[in-house]
Amino acid sequence: MLGSSRLLHARSRSGIFNGEPHSYTRFNLTQNMEGDNSQVEMKLSSEVDEEVGGNGVGDHLSHNSNGKPYMVQKLKRTPKSLCFMAAVTLLIFIIGFLVGYTAHRRKETSPVCSASVLPFERAVAPETGAAPLMDWDKVKSLLNQRLTAAKIETAFSEFSKPSHRAGSPEDDYLGNKVLQRFKDYGMNTWNDEHFVKVQDPPASGSNRIIYKNDPEERPKGFLSYSGNGSVKGAALYACYGQESDFRLLRDKNINMNGRVMLVRAGKISFAEKVANAAKVNASAVLIYPDPADYSIGETTDLYGHVHLGSGDPYTPGFPSFNHTQFPPVESSGLPKIPAQTITSAMATKILWKLGGQSLPEGWEGFHKLGNENDTISVEVNNFLTEKKINNVFGVVKGLVDADRYVVIGAQRDAWGPGFAASTVGTSVLVELARSVSDMVEHDGFKPRRSIVFASWSAGEYGSVGATEWLEGYLSSLGMKAFSYINLDGIVTGRNGFKVAASPLMHTLIEKALNEVYYEDKSLSSQFAKSDWESNILEPMQMDNTAYPFLAFSGIPSMSFRFTSGRSSYQYLGTLLDTQEKLNAATSSQVPQLAAAAGRFAGSIALRLVHDHLLQMNLRKYDKVIRFNVAKINAKIKAVQRMQPQMLPKALTVQWLISASGSYGRASRSLETDVQNSNLDDIETCRIINDRIMSVERNFLSPYISPREIPFRHILMGTGSHTLQALSNHLDALKADNPEADADLFRHQFALATWTLQGCANSLAGDIWSLDNEI
């Protein structure tokens, strides 16, 4: 389910000379990450001496006929002895030179003999300090010079295809092209191969719907991972299929059991709509683009997936490698009921014939909700197939902490042309990789840390390629990857700009908004107005590729896009996502917008690999935590006042408040440590940066299984373990909802408290620095 990749074999070799002139040791070490045994060949000088009969140089330097050292034995000044002494002197000089040269090389690149996610050796900086620091203004100027709209426009034609569905020959062709471009730039490259299960539309026949006695409809669009089968039930209009929509229907005392839900596309993902319908015991879900939201034509089909999660749902929590031999298992996010998209024309025919009650107040439309006589038959015959997919990678290695890296990624596949969905992001990815490589090779830029460029496959099926990579290298990535920047859908308009990100990255984002320009104005001046957080920030959705990086792996992540203001680009998830449609939505400014988007992503990535310290704002999470704790505290008091039998007075929020305070004190303590530290010392910087990197990772609840609940982040994840779930549970307790469980709440409350305290402990650093006030 959530993701991974097979790495190229990582191989390390080292030659080590000891300091004694009479012996040497040769190592030949080959390490295969897939399990081959390492082989070590050692040959000592004594063996060499035996081979030559003991007459080697070691004999002359170590022995003499009198058994005394040469330094105390008087030599005769004969021509022969003089030649011998000269030879010895020359030999000592050569050996000293080789030792010095070897030591110097080993400081520059020290081989790593343990498995790593990245198949390249970790570079260790010289002991005298960091890589030479280029002025940040010059770094920005170089990026602006290298990454241009003209270059990106050329890349559009190179990476455009009429169709490149995941696992298809066209997808493989584009993947190989990306890989070759990375090689042309002199980057270390590798690819990850996975065998994933996806649902495709019927190979023969079709999916069908029949309303009453009307002629059957056969939509061409489909929803991958839908439940299969034939069902018949009464139609019921449920607006956008949000939980709040179903609550309104319940309040009207409408029986939803066994109903076929008609819901509009938009607001939330297809998967969330189907999951919400399943909770009220619906028998099937039909999703359509309402003309009020979409002006894409009455006969345009929608494509997507309904897995409430990410990655291959038939390998939840572990990677889909070909040699994986796990017993059959399914993700808890797979729906059991059929789900199908229908066109606007199909939906309109049904909606205008519905009887029953009027629409609730606030719902748009002039039709009815539907009654028990409005029967619909739904037949879904999608077939499950296994596909081989490849993720493609290239890396620009850092010179100080090469084993610490930021990942920049974009999906490569699409249902159809997918110009906005994948072509623009892939083109920017490749051109950004070229620009950074040129800055390193030609302009003297020396990144402290590495930048990994990733081209994902099977993104349309639910970030499958990216998630499988995460699943395959979860423990290593959590320790080494300090950020992910998503390039999917970065241009869908020109009149607005939106960012979804971890709070740790907010300060970086604010700086980039002020430094990156589009049409001679900074992004901040155009879109942020008086309050950039309220005007630009938006919640990160589950169908965003950055989401599993953040909520599953605990890696600070971000996603962003140019938008069309209030009206979003409507052709994502259709076969009409073409360059012509995107040009129409952006006044033919796609190359210029893509270049600005690339500079925005590049500015943040380069800042992360340029500065001594990772510019993550720990105080932002302090505010988020305090807000959630205050809300929970107020709700607990309200429940104890209104429903005292549910929560006894003995239940106190003091522990949670103390854990919140511990995090705040630990973040302030780290700031003090930074002020009192010598940031020119490599090891000091590395220790501080590792403490910063642990913050997001330690928000993952250690008390739940990633197989059962993959998005374990207590602040950004989904599930009963989150602080938001605690707040919702309190609402249910207050309303005396029969589904509310006071004992379960107390259990969840305790685990959330200790997860938060554990994050504070990790941030504090050394064990003797822990805050024990809780």
TrEMBL record:
Listed name of the protein: Transferrin receptor protein 1
UniProt record, GO biological process: embryonic hemopoiesis; erythrocyte differentiation; hemoglobin biosynthetic process; intracellular iron ion homeostasis; receptor internalization; transferrin transport
Transmembrane stretches, start-end: 82-103
InterPro entries in the record: PA_dom_sf, PA_domain, Peptidase_M28, Peptidase_M28B, TFR-like_dimer_dom, TFR-like_dimer_dom_sf, TfR1/2_PA
Recorded topology in the membrane: Single-pass type II membrane protein
Molecular function via GO: transferrin receptor activity
The species this protein was found in: Nothobranchius furzeri
Record PTM text: Stearoylated.
Pfam family, one: Peptidase_M28
